[in-house]
Amino acid sequence: MRAPANRRARATGAGGGARARRDAVREILSRGSAASQEELQRALADRGIHAAQPTISRDLVALGATRLPAPGGARYAIPGGDAALPIDPVRGLAESVASNGTLVVVRTKAGAASTVARAIDDARLGEVLGTIAGDDTIFVATARGGAGAVEAAARRLRRLFAL
Q1: Which of 30, 72, 138, 143 shows the greatest Cβ crowding within 10 Å of its Cβ?
Q2: Could you tell me the domains of the chain?
Q3: pTM of the complete model
């Protein structure tokens, strides 16, 4: 039996279902490789998954994706995604990480501190209790006190931000 002509085409391709498509979207976004829904649609097509823009839009909402500032322009990202920490899309916005034995300070590009602080918080790093952001500076409170714990948190952030 044939589907009615007025029914919209469903997303098709490798894996077929919404779960497989969303897993592919999650993986693509974890690499920071989609600045627009059109780019995401092309990346999915390269994997043999064909989806209309409204389907991609619904997938982005279902996955909790947001557009975050990044070097070279805003990119879609999924906070707390399985494949990558949410720090990945904002990695290039951090300029330095310093500590004094009590507090970790992250310097960012102008206006980027709140975005980077949110990414640090969403990463749920065991070493970090929380963050406070200004315009280009973030204070990072460590989960444990002591100079060793503070320096360990600073080292972890330097590694994550490739500094």
Answers
A1: 138
A2: 12-77 (1.10.10.10), 88-160 (3.30.1360.40)
A3: 0.51
